[in-house]
């Protein structure tokens, strides 16, 4: 999804773009690689063939908070890159200081979803949006909903494709067991975003994120966010944002869900905070960031 969005931006800026999972034989002027470890072979091959041409590498959450510590390939990618892109400013702290000069922040933009965004009146719908895989801790919201009192109107709506049979089985079982939980499976993107836009909250339960695009989508939609306290979310929402719970803390998440449902002032505060952040995630901002990166690389080329 990130690759396709960036390809559109680069085309809008007047460039020819090819998106692929492997490096093609045909030469190009610039390589943009997503994920330091997974793109290592492509980055190394491109550098070998074209040592004078620039390479831009996006550092994913698994790079920043996992692979850079244990993967020689990921660390070599950083050395070969001309510039390193991160999705939020706090991510820079996970990169060796001597490489900070290479780091550029490009926040992932989102567009406001058209149509009716009014929440349902009889339930307090909470959206969990993303593929079901362990690093997302995808059932934490469902477990938290079980702890809510009988009079709670919270309903967890989970959207996403299960990555593995165990994830699908657990989602089906939880849907059958809990009246507060519905698993909707994988939905078309437009439909998922409309459901997000009408929700009272987005809940992000991930153990790590480079900077979750669903958070920027919620911000632009004006939907308050409750998130695990991870660097990726702190870099997007701010260190003083009051909607954090500790990773894996079911009780803490349940308390925040209940407070958002019953404390109007708290919910309004969250909503006002995300609305103030919305200008940072406009498509024009992301396009301008890429324009600046391309200009910088071109100037560096001309200076050689």
CATH class wording of the largest domain: Alpha Beta
CATH architecture of the largest domain: 3-Layer(aba) Sandwich
Shape: elongated
N→C terminal distance: 34 Å
The percent range for helix content is: 40-55%
Total number of domains: 2
Q: What is the average of the pLDDT values?
A: 94
- Derived from helix and strand composition plus strand pairing, the structural class reads alpha/beta
CATH superfamily of the largest domain: Glycogen Phosphorylase B
Q: Uncertain runs with pLDDT below 50, 5 residues or more?
A: none
> How many helices in DSSP terms?
12
Listing every helix as H and every strand as E from the N terminus to the C terminus, the arrangement reads HEHEHHEEEHEHEHEHEHEHHH
How many beta-strand runs? 10
> Major sheet: size, sense and barrel closure?
6 strands, parallel
State the CATH topology of the largest domain. Answer: Rossmann fold
**Portion in beta strands:** 5-15%
Describe the structure in brief.
The protein has two domains: 2-108 and 282-303, no CATH class; 124-281, 3-Layer(aba) Sandwich (Rossmann fold), CATH 3.40.50. 44% of the residues lie in helices and 13% in strands.
